[in-house]
Amino acid sequence: MSSEIPDSFRAFRIFDDEDGYRSEIVEQSIDDQSEGDVVIQVAWSSVNYKDALAGTGKGKILRDFPLNGGIDVAGTVIESRAADFREGDEVLMTGSGLSEVRDGGYSEYLRVPSEWLIPRPDGLDLYEAMCLGTAGFTAALGLYRMEALGQTPDMGPICITGASGGVGSLAVDIYSRAGYEISAISGKVDEFDWLHELGAGQCISRHDLHWPETPLASARFAGALDTVGSDMLSGLTRVIRPWGNIAACGMAAGIGLQTTVMPFIIRGISLVGINSSGCAYPLRETVWARLAGDWKPRHLDKIAQEPIGLEDLQQTFEQLLAGGGRGRIPVRIGS
After folding, report:
1. Can you tell me which residues the record assigns to a coiled coil (predicted)?
2. What value does the mean pLDDT take over residues 69-93?
3. Interatomic CA distance for residues 324 and 317, integer angstroms
């Protein structure tokens, strides 16, 4: 073991045992962690909705216990038994079983399997990579898959639901930079000015939104990125223009879907699922290259909140689940 790895370090660990479900900051060694062939000195992580569910026990995220929380991580390799990575390499990892089946990024040092590690792409530093994190990767993966199905800016506006959240706000920025006209749906009308600054041409209050009950209604949008699910997704299927696409990446409002085959057959629309956690490695590299290049958000400074530390995670989780989230929350792990 490298002498650079201390005997003990801090980690935010989640338990479910005879003492109940709980999460706390602990001292651990690298041998307490899941197996892997690369050890990272962690610099940054982030807070996602999934992290809040896992850290509070309000969602069944972890499949094994105990595990360190944090589905995102970025840092520097300090020990490697993998041919593709050397000490000093800056790397990142999102999803890929972190804080689900293996220890996650809320740890000062982290041992991971190299097959999921992404070299930090030119154009992003480690902080920016975690301001994006799973949320930015999800938003970009949605656009990548929609464009693979033929979506183009000249087809008309893209609707983004849950627009004030992490995925939604980054999508507003990324998609507008890619040339799309953006219609942002959010329940937080006090964030409309902020969403306009990020690139939204139109903001629509979720509270004033009433979807038609007919299987097909007047087509309003050329496509959509939906982070909400349930009635929101059902309504979107009725108002997408011919040959448009819906990328579904969230289910904050529920898992149900009430629709018919008519939008898919009569209008030829596509509904594509976005699984950012289990995305294949070559596609990960491609999407991260776009995020570091022509899709890099122009307003990360407006989207990212002040960084928090491990000791702030529990309070932040509660605020996020109570609807108090806006944009992205980076977590400073290293000094």
Report:
1. none
2. 97
3. 10
